[in-house]
Design goal:
Low-confidence stretches: none
Largest sheet: none
Strand content: under 5%
Oligomer: single chain
Number of helices: 2
Structural class: mainly alpha
Number of domains: 1
Radius of gyration: 18 Å
Shape: elongated
Order of helices and strands: HH
Distance between the termini: 22 Å
């Protein structure tokens, strides 16, 4: 069941466009999540000249980005049929 017909990744440019849509959405989500975590932990304040590295923020951002990427790939598969060509026959 594909919602948008005739926009499958059947040629190189359509595959590039679909992959760019997906990648830019995932990067946007990762940046927003990381910024939100840094703001809540007050690591992004202008008072300190030296930024602290926070493993908690990186770990949570990684997990949220992983989950949203799975969801985004599922949505792209349902809407555009994206990724169907990556399936191999057993």
């Amino acid at each position: 069941m594909v919602l948008v017909h005739h926009f499958n990744s059947t040629n190189l440019w359509k595959a590039f466009i679909l992959n760019s849509i997906l990648t830019s959405l995932l990067i946007l989500i990762a940046i927003v999540v990381k910024k939100r975590i840094d703001l809540e932990l007050d690591l992004d304040s202008d008072d300190s000249n030296q930024k602290q590295f926070n493993w908690y923020g990186v770990t949570v951002t990684l997990l949220i980005t992983f989950g949203t990427s799975l969801l985004a790939y599922l949505i792209m598969y349902v809407v555009f049929g994206f990724g169907g060509g990556m399936l191999s026959k057993p």
